[in-house]
Design goal:
Layout: H1 19-31, E1 34-39, H2 43-58, E2 62-64, E3 72-77, H3 82-98, E4 102-106, H4 112-118, E5 124-125, H5 131-141, E6 165-169, E7 171-172, H6 183-187, E8 191-192, H7 195-207, E9 212-216, E10 231-234, E11 237-240, H8 243-250, E12 256-259, H9 271-276, E13 283-285, H10 293-299, H11 305-318, E14 323-330, H12 337-350, E15 354-359, H13 377-400, E16 406-415, E17 418-422, E18 434-437, E19 447-455, E20 460-466, H14 471-474
Helix pairs in contact: 12-13
The structure holds iron/sulfur cluster.
Iron/sulfur cluster (SF4) binds near residues 181 and 218.
Length: about 475
């Protein structure tokens, strides 16, 4: 996934009004140093970009959405796969050609020599989550101007996502050592944020009008292990740094809470009742990566997929509506045809709702590169095609079951053709959509009841069954916080 600053609107709302103040702000904005950003990679990198922009905005920098207007351009890179690195290098080249004053940060920043070998003119290179170093590099290139008006930042920080949804990062790093992955090398071991800090951030987001919070990290279910589940105080009570307790508390905010990157530890079972009770969305994004015990062993992932199938059955007994999303890698070194067939059979049993699939790609520095049994590219492609075709049938059948049901749908976009939204079963950018053809009188962020009348492989179509209250009566869209 690639997110570029270009098409996004970074215009900031100034909370002060009145003609004199507006004139003053306009004058100051003219002289404020301006920063542009190109944000590449996963939602975790997007949250890093938001933190950097929040800090710069707090210091009086103006965030601009074009290369021309920027005094300096930040490129937040992705270094997960070689193809992502190539894309990062291209984005740096584009920013250099269009603007010339470029600071590089993010995952690929851990390899400054590789960047400078291609782009010797970048002004600075900083690594992943080195917020201080990025901000310092910006100061060097274009010093901040202190101003009490321009220093005002919305309390929820600067967000690169639309106003009605946001990513909430609960920890950094990972204690696993999957052989295909260099993230622990880039980002280090697990470091969790205290529960109260996360909950206060979530509360600010909800008050600012965010209606859906996506909980992210490298390993969401491991949250708090490094803190030994220490308690911190929120709303006058102690909350443990543990995923179940954190989710129960997030469930009090009255917004959709969606969990991503959940490793299937046994205690994940505790989350299912919270989903059944409607406290958090019945949606689990679990990157299983494979099903064959031999491949999982080579990947250094837990191998007991039989038990996982049993657990999936139990989860569906407790919460029949649960949506399961996962990602898989085909063509991992040593993957045989029987291993791959095992995976296809497992998928048939598991009946997952949403599946993403990657062809194995060697990442520089990953231990998997040294494994024997490299799978030829044409075999990888053939397995990828077979897996996607098999899953498409499963996904189509599962979506068809939704025809006739009425679902809550959060509207993301309204254009001349109609409105486009998502149900609880669809995360933004990676899952499907619910299309409301011809419905043009809704707004992004509206939550409407939709009766589903058509389904295809990935998407649904429906008719509005119940509209949100008229805007005047609705007043502020922010959630009610006790
Ligand atoms: S759990 Fe995820 S982040 Fe951690 S090593 Fe494995 S693939 Fe990488």
């Amino acid at each position: 996934m690639r997110q570029r600053a270009g098409p996004r609107d970074f215009l900031l709302r100034m909370p002060l009004g009145g003609p004199d103040v507006s004139r003053y702000i306009r004058a100051m904005k003219k002289s404020a140093p301006k920063v542009g950003i190109v944000s590449l990679g996963c939602p975790k990198a997007l949250v890093d970009s938001e933190r950097i922009l929040t800090r710069l905005r707090a210091e009086g920098y103006e965030i601009v959405s074009s290369y021309d207007g920027a005094d300096v351009v930040l490129v937040n890179t992705c270094g997960f796969l070689d193809s992502a690195k190539q894309e990062s290098l291209e984005a740096i080249g584009e920013a250099l050609a269009e603007n010339g004053r470029v600071i590089v940060t993010g995952c690929m920043g851990a390899e400054p020599d590789a960047i400078r070998a291609v782009h010797p003119n970048v002004l600075a290179v900083t690594g992943p989550h080195q917020y201080e170093a990025v901000v310092e590099a910006v100061h060097q290139v274009v010093p901040p101007k202190h101003d009490p008006f321009i220093d005002l930042v919305p309390p929820q920080g600067i967000k690169l996502t639309p106003r009605h949804y946001a990513y909430l990062k609960i920890s950094e790093g990972c204690n696993h050592r999957c052989t295909f992955c260099i993230i622990p090398h880039l980002r280090g071991d697990l470091v969790s944020r205290p529960a109260a800090e996360i909950l206060y951030e979530a509360e600010r987001l909800a008050l600012a009008g965010v209606r859906e919070i996506m909980v992210i990290s490298q390993d969401t279910s491991a949250y708090g292990v490094d803190l030994r589940h220490a308690e911190s105080r929120w709303r006058g009570r102690a909350i443990k740094a543990r995923i179940t307790e954190l989710c129960a508390a997030l469930g009090e905010l009255g917004v959709w809470v969606r969990l991503h990157y959940v490793y299937p530890y046994p205690h994940v079972d505790e989350l299912i009742p919270l989903m059944a009770e409607g406290k958090i969305l019945p949606y689990l994004d679990i990157p299983f990566q494979h099903a064959s015990p031999a491949v999982l062993k080579a990947m250094r992932r837990p191998a007991n997929q039989e038990k996982v199938l049993e657990r999936i059955r139990r989860w569906r007994d407790i919460c029949p509506d649960i949506t399961l999303r996962s990602t898989f890698i085909v063509g991992f070194p040593g993957e045989t045809e029987p291993d791959f067939q095992f995976l296809l059979d497992w998928l048939e049993e598991a009946q997952l709702d949403r599946v993403g699939c990657f062809k194995y790609e060697a990442v520089a520095g990953a231990p998997a590169n040294d494994l024997p049994g490299a799978v030829p590219e044409e075999v990888k492609q053939e397995r990828w095609d077979r897996l996607m075709a098999a899953q498409q049938k499963i996904s189509t059948a599962r979506l068809k079951r939704k025809i006739g049901r009425t679902l809550d749908v959060l509207i993301d976009e309204v254009n001349a053709d109609g409105a486009v939204g998502r149900s609880y079963a669809d995360a933004p950018e990676i899952d499907g959509n619910v299309f409301l053809d011809g419905v043009t009188d809704l707004d992004p962020g509206d939550l409407v009841k939709v009766t589903i009348d058509h389904a295809e492989e990935y998407d649904l179509w429906g008719t509005v069954a119940e509209r949100p209250a008229p805007r005047r009566a609705r007043g502020q869209r922010g959630a009610k916080i006790a």
